[in-house]
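User: ABC transporter ATP-binding protein. Structure?
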Amino acid sequence: MDHREPGAVVAEGLRFGYPGREVLRGVDLRIGAGELVALVGLNGCGKSTFLRLAAGLLRPDGGRVLLDGEEVARLSRRGAARRVALLHQSAPPVPGLTVRQLVRQGRYAARGPLGMLRDGDDAVSARALADAGVADWAGRPVDALSGGERQRVRLAMALAQDTRTLLLDEPTTYLDLRHQLEVLQTVVRLRAERGLTVVMVVHDLNHAARFADRIVALRDGRVAADGKPADIVTPALLAEVLGVEGRVAPDDRGGWPVCYPDHPLEAARPLRNENHIH
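Assistant: Predicted structure:
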């Protein structure tokens, strides 16, 4: 893979920790342009931290992340935001903003603070509204929308950054099943239509197996498994990464692996291979 390829995300020996707790312990990961990759693992394993490092919001303690061949930590905040958009797990409400006004916030990196004062949508904002399916709501207050509707608006705001790479931190959190599927199907469609590289943190392994091209499982700050869903979603993955005893069988329509968790284990089983589960 060419590290300079637009949309490519490469982590080399990536380490990061908070006071008293090491989170990432040497992550090597290469994500090619146009891939849709799901990050899975237990809480605290480093999934969200990886996204924040890739977006330039945190600086690594060791190693590096490359976007389009350039080291993220050496870019300015606006420079990183021109290359990668991060949809955070949750965002504080902004009372009084309309959908149009919120989506236009995504143009900050390109237009700057003065550009944000201009009236009207530019072509990029208009396309983001349309592509996320929220153009009809443009004049509505964001705080009057349902949770699923707000998440699609926040997705439109991320699209308005007009980057080749989209990072999604648990995009279905707090949503009911219908809206979870709606958001994930929208992400899959936008990835295909725009040629995006998408890396998303997903808690539901069944959703990861259905919608992602590739799953990367983190455990104890390292990559424990990496591959196509059909290859790595196994009872061993459930036990050794997620700490759950369970079964896996192919979906009778689509063929993707479906997990049937039976009960939690007292502790995740030791990894049989330090780098990959087979």
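The chain has a mean pLDDT of 91. The radius of gyration is 19 Å.
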